[in-house]
Specification:
CATH class of the largest domain in chain B: Mainly Alpha
Number of domains of chain B: 2
Largest interface: A-B, 68 and 62 residues
Distance between the termini of chain B: 56 Å
Structural class of chain A: alpha+beta
Helix content of chain A: 25-40%
Helix content of chain B: 25-40%
Largest sheet of chain A: 7 strands, mixed
CATH architecture of the largest domain in chain A: 2-Layer Sandwich
Number of strands of chain B: 7
Shape of chain B: globular
Order of helices and strands of chain B: EEHEEEEHHHHE
Strand order of the largest sheet of chain A: 3-5-1-12-9-10-11
Number of strands of chain A: 28
Oligomer: heterodimer
CATH architecture of the largest domain in chain B: Orthogonal Bundle
CATH superfamily of the largest domain in chain B: [2Fe-2S]-binding domain
Distance between the termini of chain A: 68 Å
Chain lengths: 794, 179
């Protein structure tokens, strides 16, 4: 048995000590540290920094006109001569490695031999003015030899066999256009099928979803005196961006400084694209010696950054008459588009979650990610889980229908409880916090489920109501995907104010506020005393990537460890001042006193000042590394994640059967997130995730035509929910407590979208008695289905 | 395309006069420059955000002679002589407008990129409808996209702003606001 590291012991000790006790700051409604800056317009997003720099050059990306073509020649001579143009950059001008791939090095920064999707960049124009740069870009002449364009993954592979079909290889440098293959082999599926009373078998499709964060990607690069470069860019992963930029520029990482200012939304989309746009600006600075800016237009953003993987899948569930699940089988095809991006990791997470939060003893799951000539797909809130959750939760509803069992009852019969093993053989115990049963009960009660379900079953008239449920679970942090560490620094300044640093990015949802509240609780100083410094690779510690709902758990643990160590020292210093034991010290800043005798007291500032005199350092670095995950490549057995967030969603909808228009009336979300650290942050996640999930269910889909051109590359053709679409949302919480999370907390960022779409589609299917197995379901699709089934009559 | 002739032309500089947030400015612009470019990059009013450049997202809206306009769709030369209000000009230095205070108090701040536009659009709404219904709020804010999904908080915030204004509380001292 390996020794448990000190930081793990600290997290567990704090969990036990605070369990069930009242909190001072954790769990309270508080104004965010950045709120005033954001309502006054003072908050600086990437391009806002331009106002501080003069002599700036603009970088324009010249993109391919063909989604799949061999590049025979690039002629930049006319563009280079255009007035105002400083330089035209092609791949040969890159001093380092021409690659910005995230998981595997398959993605050039500037294409040389081949274009693989419509956003592919051929050259950069550096000019004095953005308009000039764009005009000159049109003068670049490229000779292409067009190749067949594949926009559907089933043109590349067969869904039944998951084998490649004959086609022109998209990645000719690789053996295959299948990027990744993950499996689960559990129990004996053949035997289960023989014993089954009911078998439900269906195909599902989910769309390519666009993040549509309000701030398109951007980067500002500034030359440094020693030849290095500073890059301000909208990124979730400043340390990964630094790594990529350093490789492109052929510089040590120490010469590249990446600053991540306020992000105008991320949702996973600002992971790898920062490698690209940061490199473009850095390259322009490197080549011209001047500050450089690259800003994507909305159209470039939509065709040029990663998306949510479209999924095509086949599922087969087998069950006994009483509803007991016997087996689950699935063939899952994820379309990763032109480049792998985070595709292999997404495919892995999809595989892990492919059977849903249920007791499944027999399973065969095969997930592959394949290249096509569509915009590349990567990380998006949920990361492969919303796709499989849609299929699994539709399967559960169809199974319930076939068995004549209420969908809630069928789920209650099969959910994971403490003491059960997941499909991967991972034993879930009380220590993980398994609160899904409680979540279902809360959501069902708040929704008045059984009554409404009955009431909505036989309706007439133009408006039909429906109610649907969906469950989810979501592995916290990154599991076996990579080095799962995090860190934070807390500095108590001599005047008693506190500086907080972490390399984790707040994408907007308030994760960093949660960290501040954790530190405040441990230290005994109010969150308002903290000043948060935004991620900067030169000053904030490397906290790993801001992905996978890991900020609160992993960043929270690192923060907790730093605060714990500081608190210990403060207690010791206070003890020398007050003469009671360090364990007896209570800090409720500005007051510091002995718990046994509150009349013996001093102040926060006095303790801080004394620490400086006594030589007690008041800076602390906190680190946390998740216990190592295990995964067997052949069987999918092991312990893929440290723990899971659970959730139950109930949606109520109305459908107008004369138009096919769905309006979502109410969404009730019940999530087990262990412990609610920052309630307003949690509520906003529940609301925002619900609205984004509603878009996924009803209206959002990036459409490529047969030539691989994106038909809806702006916000008037790619629809996202507006204020008129927003339903009533009721967030409920279960706090089952995870022993190795800060105060028991688990992540919510990604979980908040996972089960929204299936709960809505289950409700629509309930309202109309029509099975919808594809999303999105915009009005015309619903109307056509009604017509097909002869149900348009009032 | 190669072979076709492109006429390379120098664009003239044009001086325009703008009143932004109560101050007069004379700026030199190119004929193709947009109002948003001038506000952000020449005058430093970076609360005006660019989300789409096509008037679809609402992030760049400003009040131009009292009208709500997407500043990405207005050529700078067309704005010559007009009065512009951006978020920076909603309240005097050191103060918060009731609308800003209400958006703070309803705790709906997330990434904040859409907030300047949302707050300006709310100002436009309240200048016209002093006590708006939910429907009014949704109609006036429909063009303000928010991907973080703070929409439900917007409705609460507008109502709270109405309450503050009715109580005569137009400005709040920034120092008294926790944050």
């Amino acid at each position: 048995m390996a020794q448990v590291p000190e930081y793990v012991r600290i997290v567990e000790e704090v969990f036990e000590r605070y369990r069930g006790k009242p909190f001072v700051y954790v769990g309270t409604y508080r104004q965010r540290w950045d709120a005033v800056a954001k309502v006054t317009g003072k908050a600086l997003f990437t391009t806002d920094f331009l106002k501080f720099y003069k002599n700036v050059v603009w970088v324009h990306s010249v993109r391919t006109k063909y989604a799949h073509a061999i590049i025979k020649n690039i002629d930049v001579s006319r563009a280079a001569k255009y007035p105002g143009v400083l330089r035209v950059v092609t791949a040969k001008d890159i001093p380092g490695v021409n690659d910005v791939g995230y998981v595997i090095p398959d993605q050039p920064l500037l294409a040389t031999k081949k274009a693989r999707y419509i956003g592919e960049i051929i050259a950069l124009v550096i000019a004095e003015d953005p308009y000039v740069a764009r005009e000159a870009g049109d003068l670049i002449h490229v000779d292409y030899e067009p190749l067949p364009v594949y926009t559907d993954p089933l043109q590349i592979v067969d869904l039944d066999t998951l084998k490649e079909k004959p086609h022109t290889r998209i990645h000719e440098e690789r053996d295959s256009d299948i990027v990744a293959h993950f499996k689960i082999r559990a129990g004996d599926v053949e035997k289960a099928l023989k014993e089954a009373d009911v078998i439900v078998e269906n195909k599902y499709r989910t769309p390519m979803q666009e993040h549509a964060y309000m701030e398109p990607e951007a980067a500002v690069a500034i030359p440094e005196q020693d030849g290095g470069v500073t890059v301000i860019t909208s990124t979730q992963c400043p340390f990964d961006a630094r790594k990529a930029i350093a490789r492109v520029l052929n510089m040590p990482q120490s010469m590249v400084r990446v600053i991540a200012p306020f992000l105008g939304g991320g949702f996973g989309g600002k992971e790898d694209v920062a490698n690209e746009i940061g490199s473009k600006a850095a390259l322009a600075t490197y080549l011209t010696g001047r500050p450089a800016v690259a800003i994507h237009t909305r159209e470039e953003s939509i065709i040029g950054h990663s998306k949510r993987h479209p999924m095509v899948t086949w599922y087969r569930h087998a069950a006994k008459k009483d509803g007991t699940l016997l087996s689950v089988e699935a063939n899952i095809v994820l379309d990763t588009g032109a480049y792998a991006s985070l595709g292999p990791f997404v495919a892995w997470r999809a595989t892990v979650h492919a059977t849903g939060p249920y007791r499944v003893r027999n399973a065969r799951i095969d997930t592959i990610a394949v290249y096509t000539n569509t915009v590349y797909s990567g990380a998006f809130r949920g990361f492969g889980n919303p796709q499989v959750a849609f299929a699994v939760e539709r399967q559960m509803d169809i199974l319930a229908e076939e068995l004549g069992i209420d969908p809630v009852d069928l789920r209650l019969k099969n959910i994971l409880r403490a003491g059960d093993r997941t499909v991967h053989g991972q034993l879930l115990t009380e220590e993980h916090g398994v609160g899904i049963e409680e979540a279902i009960k809360k959501a069902v009660e708040a929704a008045d489920w059984y009554n409404k379900r009955r009431l909505y079953t036989r309706q007439t008239g133009p408006i039909r109501k429906g109610i649907g449920i969906a469950l989810m679970y979501h592995g916290n942090s990154i599991g076996v995907e990579g080095a799962d560490y995090s860190s934070a620094t807390i500095i108590i300044n001599r005047d008693g104010s506190i500086t907080f640093r972490t390399g984790l990015t707040d994408m907007g949802q308030g994760a960093v506020m949660g960290l501040v509240m954790i530190a405040a609780e441990i230290l005994g100083a109010p969150p308002e005393w903290f000043r948060v410094e935004l991620p900067d690779t030169s000053s904030t510690p490397d906290a790993g990537p801001t992905v996978a709902s890991r900020s609160t758990v992993m960043g929270g643990n690192a923060t907790l460890v730093a605060a714990y160590k500081l608190r210990k020292r403060l207690n010791e210093v206070a003890s020398t001042i007050l003469g009671c034991s360090p364990d007896d010290i209570e800090i409720k800043a500005p007051d510091v006193y002995c718990r046994s005798d509150p009349s013996r007291k001093t102040t926060w500032n006095e303790v801080v000042e004394q620490s400086f005199w006594l030589g007690v350092p008041l800076q602390e670095f906190g680190y946390f590394r998740a216990p190592k995950a295990r995964w067997d490549e052949e069987t999918g057995q092991g312990e893929p994640y440290i723990t899971y967030t659970f959730g139950a969603i109930v949606s109520e909808i109305s459908v107008d059967i004369e138009t096919g228009q769905v309006s979502v009336d109410k969404i009730i979300t019940a999530y087990d997130i262990g412990k609610v650290i920052n309630p307003i942050g949690a509520e906003l996640h529940a609301e925002g995730g619900s609205i984004q999930g509603m878009g996924y269910a009803l209206m959002e889909e990036i459409i490529h035509d047969i030539n691989g051109v994106v038909r809806n590359n702006n916000l008037s053709t790619y629809y996202i929910p507006t204020i008129k679409d927003a339903p009533e949302i009721i967030p409920l919480w279960v706090e089952a407590g995870y022993k190795r999370g800060p105060f028991g907390a688990k992540g919510l960022g990604e979980p908040s979208i996972v089960a929204i779409a299936p709960s809505i589609v289950n409700a629509v299917s309930h309202a109309l008695g029509i099975r919808f197995n594809e999303i999105p379901i915009p009005p015309h699709k619903i109307y056509l289905a009604l017509k097909r089934e002869g149900k348009t009559r009032l | 395309m190669a072979g076709s002739e492109t006429v390379i032309q120098e664009y003239p500089d044009i001086a325009i006069r703008l009143n932004v947030n109560g101050r007069d400015y004379v700026v030199t612009v190119k004929p193709y420059e947009r109002l948003i470019d001038v506000l952000r990059y020449k005058l430093g009013f970076t609360s005006v955000k660019e989300g789409c450049g096509r008037g679809e997202c609402g992030a760049c809206v400003v009040l131009m002679d009292g009208k709500l306009v997407p500043s990405c769709l207005v050529l700078a030369i067309r704005a010559n002589g007009s009065k512009i209000v951006t978020l920076e000009g909603l309240a005097p230095e050191g103060k918060l407008h009731a609308i800003q205070k209400a958006f703070l108090d309803t705790l709906g701040v997330q990434c904040g990129f859409c907030f300047p536009g949302v707050i300006i659009a709310t100002k436009y709404l309240l200048d016209r409808v002093s006590d708006p219904s939910d429907e009014d709020i949704k109609n006036y804010l429909e063009g303000q996209l928010c991907r973080c999904g703070s929409y439900l908080r917007f409705i609460k915030a507008v109502k709270l702003a109405v309450k503050y204004i009715k109580e005569g509380k137009i400005y709040f001292d920034l120092k008294e606001v926790k944050g």
